[in-house]
Amino acid sequence: MTMNQRIISVVNDLAPCYPWEAYEGSGDKSLSRYFVFNYDVYPHEFGDDTTPYERYSIQLHYFCPLADDTVAFRKDIRKRIYTADFTWPMETNASDNDGQHYCWEFDGLEAVNGED
Q1: 7-16, 39-48, 62-71, 80-89: least confident range
Q2: Please, where are the H alpha helices in 1-116?
Q3: Where are the beta strands (DSSP E) in the chain?
Q4: 17-19 and 34-44 as β-strands: parallel, antiparallel, unpaired?
C-alpha cells in the first residue's frame, strides 16, 4: 500500500480525501466536508550512503462548516491516525470565518524496498 493509500484509508469512510496536488478546490458547494493532505519525505536511519526507510512528515487537513460540532469527531481522527501505525498527531485549529479547518501533523515510515 502506498503512503497516499495509507493516509486516505484512515479517513475515506468519513469524507472524501485528496492529495493536496490533486484537489481542485471546492467550487461545488455540496462538498462541504473533506480532507486534503500533503507531506515531506526524509531519509530515516541513513548510513553507508543509503537509507532503509523514509520518514513522511504528514499534514492532514479537514474542512467543514462552522456549525458542525467536531469535538468527538476530531478525537476519533487522532485515534484513527495512531491506530493506522502513524505517530500520535498534533492538532492545530486553523478555522476562520469561512469554516472550520483542522490540521493534524504526524509521521509515518515506509521501507525503501517496499517490504515493510
Answers
A1: 39-48
A2: 3-11, 71-83
A3: 17-19, 34-44, 53-64, 90-93, 100-111
A4: parallel
**Closest of 41, 59, 53 to residue 106, by C-alpha:** 59
Q: What is the bridge-based pairing of β-strands 53-64 and 34-44?
A: antiparallel
The conformational region for residue 11 under phi > 0 = left, psi -120 to 50 = alpha, else beta, is alpha
Return the pLDDT at 88.
98
What sign does the dihedral 6-35-30-70 (CA atoms) show? positive
Using alpha carbons only, give the angle 3, 55, 106 rounded to the nearest 5 degrees: 75
- The overall pTM is greater than 0.85: yes
The sheet with strand 90-93 has its strands ordered as: 17-19, 34-44, 53-64, 100-111, 90-93
In angstroms, rounded to a whole number, what is the distance separating the alpha carbons of residues 116 and 105? 22
